[in-house]
Design goal:
By secondary structure, this protein is of the alpha+beta class. The chain has helices at 15-18, 29-39, 46-56, 59-62, 64-67, 76-82, 96-104, 108-112; strands spanning 9-10, 13-14, 87-92, 116-119, 131-132, 138-140, 144-145, 149-150. β1 (9-10) and β2 (13-14) form a beta hairpin.
Length: 152
């Protein structure tokens, strides 16, 4: 069984009242940028600001051309996770259909709100038997409810 409680607000205001209700589907990249500008017209605050700055200043972004090694396998997934707060966002398999439905309707924010952050301990090895890493986002085959979260 799988129960969903998606995030429906940004900075304390309902998403639909800020920008999403004014957009047609499908939207252009310019429409999306305009909507984001309206939602975040006063800038990022709190955790959103910290996450934005961490991403913007990440060494893999800052030194992209020096760090990229075309044609060679790199354990970049583990490396990127190690460079963050140690979490990876996963989609419970039981939410996949609803996630795809929301994406198809252009509800990207609502779809991404369905992802569950899992803090990794030392390695993802203990979780790999339950993971499908061939999709983006990664799928995890574990029971999930909005009340209890992901049951690992």
């Amino acid at each position: 069984m799988c129960w969903l409680a998606a995030r429906s607000s940004v900075q304390g205001q309902p998403i639909h009242s800020r920008a999403a209700s004014t957009l047609a589907n499908p939207i252009s990249e310019g429409d999306l940028v305009d909507a984001a500008d309206r939602v975040y017209e006063t800038g990022f605050t709190g955790d959103d600001d910290r996450a934005f700055r961490e991403g913007l200043e990440h060494p893999d972004i800052v030194a992209f051309e020096r760090r990229l090694l075309a044609g060679a396998h790199q354990g970049w997934v583990e490396h990127v996770i190690e460079g963050t707060d140690g979490t990876v966002e996963l989609l419970p398999t039981c939410l996949r259909e609803e996630y795809e439905f929301r994406k198809k309707k252009g509800l990207w924010i609502e779809a991404n709100a369905m992802l569950v952050g899992v803090r990794r301990v030392q390695s993802l090895a203990w979780l790999r038997p339950k993971l499908n890493m061939s999709d983006d986002p990664w799928l995890i085959d574990c029971p999930y409810t909005a009340e209890r979260g992901l049951e690992l």
